[in-house]
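Incident log entry.

Two folding requests arrived from the same account within the same minute. Monitoring flagged them as a possible duplicate submission, but the sequences differ. Recording both here for audit purposes.

Request one:
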Amino acid sequence: MTTVLIVDDQPLQRLGFRLLLNANPDTSVIGEAGHGAEAVRQAAALRPDVVLMDIRMPGMDGIEATRRIVASGARSRVLVLTTFDLDDYVYGALRAGASGFLFKDALPEELLAGIRAVAAGDAVTAPALTRRLLEVFMEHTSDCVGSAWEDSRLTGLSERERDVLLAVVEGLTNGEIAQRLVLSESTIKTHVSRVLAKIGARDRVHAVIIGYEAGLVGRGPRR
């Protein structure tokens, strides 16, 4: 059972999410919050597996709430829900520590799949959407001078792990990475887990951000 905290300033929106999630046997809504400050308090008290976080709310917004929840060291993972397509609010939320985002008009099965993915520590955006996100994210990232692999976060990676990280940065799924590197999908899953641990990434989205910040965009492996 995955426990969920719903954060949205619209009562009807919260009600809709609650009805959907409580009707699903694998999810349970254990709390609701109407603004960011309440979300931080509820997350600390209830310790949900996943926080469904709206971005634009009165008072403390979803970005600051996400930052505080992640900074607290809580096990809760944040899934951002937005009506805005790839705007600065989404980038701010990802930089604050959110594990991904979905649009509020996502299909019920997409939302449920997203919650399961976040709870498992994976990214929730579809690969095509991830690539769109990262193309725009690159415009918000300063140019990197020197070799990307000299970044202190990446120096401990083996050559194979570098190849895996590059593929993750490109937004490839485990299956696509397996095809590229001619390895089994289970082996790729193991490599991805090791890469995340070595570079200090919370999840795949965070790994992608680290890769972009280090300057891996548009680069081949540097060995």
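Request two (distinct sequence, not a duplicate):
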Amino acid sequence: MVGFEEACQKRRPDCVLVVGDVNSTLACSIVAKKLCIPVAHVEAGLRSGDMTMPEEVNRIVTDAIADFLFVTEPSGVRNLLNRGKPAARNSPCRHVMVTICCTSVTRLALTDTSLSSPRMKLRLRTYGAGNSAPPSNVDTRDALERIRRPVAK
């Protein structure tokens, strides 16, 4: 936060754009607001309802102090409205992670550098990538096993 505050004081940005729900999202939002710099939050309004998750606290606080709210899905709009954020402050945007995945698939199809060993690529032939965020999904073996197990039909 100290380093970001120094950078903001030196550069005086017109706005600080923060994404998601990680600790740096919240930290940069707080610094910007204390310096009277507007904050734009991408992925605003997303909620899990689990207050034991640090990410959930980060989401709620960041949304509370953000000046511009970029929402990736209808539930986000509803959550923000329920928290008293006027609809005029909510702007729809694409979901950042979905966009990154789609872009990555296209790039990997052109030049596959996702596995460092050519022999491994030949042996596996096909493979996938995934995201297990938030960290609570992988903090314990039991949590990871719940994700790994196939869904019952």
